[in-house]
Specification:
The protein has 204 residues and is mainly alpha-helical. The chain folds into two domains: 67 residues, Fe,Mn superoxide dismutase (SOD) domain (Helix Hairpins), CATH 1.10.287.990; 107 residues, minor pseudopilin epsh fold (3-Layer(bab) Sandwich), CATH 3.55.40.20. It is built from seven helices and three strands. Strands 2-1-3 form a three-stranded antiparallel beta sheet. It is globular, with a radius of gyration of 18 Å.
Length: 204
């Protein structure tokens, strides 16, 4: 069964992130990752049906190439969905009392937490992620320079910020800092609070 692309979870006009950027980002880039994920699923089915497993090789093989692409495409889909999920809000952190408290406990204040996350986003080449680390039962921050690099097994994303140029170049050129400020203006703290409540306390 094919993976279906999810529509944008908001209908409002964003403050500082244009409709053109969102159309390009969601309708072309994200939907493109979904199409490739489905294409890979068909290729895996054909590969398994053929049963030519002896060709598998760590230097180069069709299977290795497909497995590399699978991780990249899957994370391209999931990370974008988490990113879009937390947009469309009013940037009001007071609607997320439990997540805010956890961020304050970790970084001293909500203002400092946002400043630190913004700095991490400036330092990343692809993604800034706040997640719940199920190994230690704590909020952690990780950067990823590519979809298939930088992620940590057992971590469940809560706040995801895309800092690839396609997320902001139409609106801001190379001014990533202004885009990050716009992200927080449009951040849906209520949605992030829901995710935090869902994953908090999971320790594996």
């Amino acid at each position: 069964m094919n993976y279906e692309p999810k529509p944008l979870p908001f209908s409002k006009q964003l403050d500082g992130i244009s409709e053109k950027t969102l159309q390009t980002h969601h309708d072309k880039l994200y939907v493109g990752y979904v199409k490739k994920l489905n294409e890979l699923a068909e290729k895996f089915k054909a590969y398994v049906d053929a049963g030519n497993f002896e060709e598998a090789n760590a230097t180069y093989s069709d299977l290795r190439s497909m497995k590399d692409a699978e991780t990249f495409a899957t994370n391209g889909v999931y990370l974008h969905e988490w990113y879009f999920d937390v947009l469309g809000g009013a940037g009001d952190w007071q609607v997320a009392p439990e997540l805010t408290k956890a961020l304050e406990e970790k970084w001293g204040s909500i203002e400092k937490a946002v400043a630190y996350m913004s700095a991490c986003a400036m330092a990343a080449r692809g993604w800034m992620v706040i997640c719940w680390d199920t190994r230690v039962g704590k909020l952690k921050q990780y950067n990823a320079d590519a979809h298939a690099q930088g992620g940590v097994w057992g971590c469940l994303p809560i706040i995801v910020l895309d800092v690839y140029e396609h997320a902001y170049f139409i609106d801001y050129g190379s001014d990533r800092k202004s885009y990050i400020e716009a992200y927080w203006k449009n951040f849906n703290w209520g949605k992030a609070e829901e995710m935090f409540k869902k994953v908090r306390g999971i320790v594996i």
